[in-house]
Automatic annotation (TrEMBL):
Gene3D superfamilies: Ribonuclease H-like superfamily/Ribonuclease H. NCBIfam families: transpos_IS3 (NF033516). PROSITE patterns: INTEGRASE. GO terms for biological process: DNA integration. It comes from the Bacteria. It comes from Labilibaculum filiforme. This is Integrase. InterPro entries: HTH-like_dom, Integrase_cat-core, RNaseH-like_sf, RNaseH_sf, Transpos_IS3, Transposase_IS3/IS150/IS904. Pfam families: HTH_21 (PF13276), rve (PF00665). Residues 113-273 form the Integrase catalytic domain. One of its GO terms (molecular function) is nucleic acid binding.
């Protein structure tokens, strides 16, 4: 997660000392990037909910949906906010998502793959998380066999370092998967991400362009966490969001899931890993 979220403004420990303990620059803690307007935040939230209901919705469809909500946006504005919220339609498209270098794009390895054990296949993705007065990004990694979330983290941006940090922490905690699948976003088609997986001898798999269903298990997880927690409990700040997700994740791991024979992800993962 973003370490700045752990700084407690009401603590007896000074901000300077807290930043020193966490290893972050005090100037970066006080820096507040220019955020989106309240109207743009509403547009992003509406689009985030709509893409879960209509995964093929592109810019024009979103524009029409917003018009039905009496929100009138230009094509360019809708496209920019979709990019900002990391919202991607699942049909082949141009220029909607930012790709990395072609030399770091790898083929999809999961077609007709029989998944029979934990740590065989992990899937990773990043999703926009709306808040009361802003938004953050959640990176999550799911073990496909057990549906257990082996790693997750919050960040303020879509930078590759935040996602790679989640991968490294998951590997350090749970061991290496045989295959790690992602989309072709720039966070995963970059030198640092690819070289780390190669160094760890983890096979790299990537969705076909515009095929979010290739990463179906993490896509289903986004729908679950957003409808069961995020939309119902809009957080006021990053620390509350982190703590809320952590508590929800405990419940998610320890309840029955229909997709795995009404078993609990934690039990399947711990027994099989």
């Amino acid at each position: 997660m973003d370490l700045k979220l752990l700084v407690n403004l009401t603590s007896n420990i000074s901000i300077r000392n807290q930043c020193d303990y966490l290893g972050i620059a005090r100037s970066s803690f006080y820096h507040v990037p220019k955020g989106e307007s309240d109207e743009n935040l509403r547009v992003m939230q509406l689009m985030d909910k709509h893409i879960l209901e209509e995964p093929t919705a592109g810019v024009l469809t979103m524009q029409s949906m917003l018009k039905d909500h009496d929100v009138h946006c230009s094509y360019e504005r809708v496209r920019r906010l979709m990019r900002k919220a990391n919202i991607r339609a699942i049909y082949p498209r141009k220029h909607l998502s930012v790709l990395g270098e072609k030399k770091y794009i790898y083929p999809y390895l999961l077609r007709n793959q029989e998944i029979s054990k934990s740590n065989q296949v992990w899937e990773i993705d990043i999703s926009y998380i709306p808040m009361q007065h802003g938004f953050m990004y959640l990176t999550a990694i799911i073990d496909v066999y057990s549906r257990y979330i082996v790693g997750w983290g919050l960040s303020n941006s879509l930078d590759a370092d935040s996602s790679l940090k989640v991968v490294k922490e998951a590997v350090a905690t749970h061991g290496k998967p045989e295959i790690l699948n992602s989309d072709q976003g720039c966070q995963f088609t970059c030198k640092a991400y690819v070289e780390y997986l190669k160094r760890e001898r983890i096979q790299i798999s990537m969705d076909g362009r515009g095929r979010a269903l290739d990463n179906i298990y993490i896509e289903r997880f986004w729908r679950t966490i957003k409808y069961q927690y995020i939309y119902l409990n809009p957080s006021d700040n990053g620390l509350d969001l982190y703590q809320g997700i952590k508590k929800w994740m405990e419940r998610y791991h320890n309840r029955d899931h229909q997709g795995i024979g009404r078993n609990k992800p934690a039990l399947i993962y711990c027994n099989a890993a």
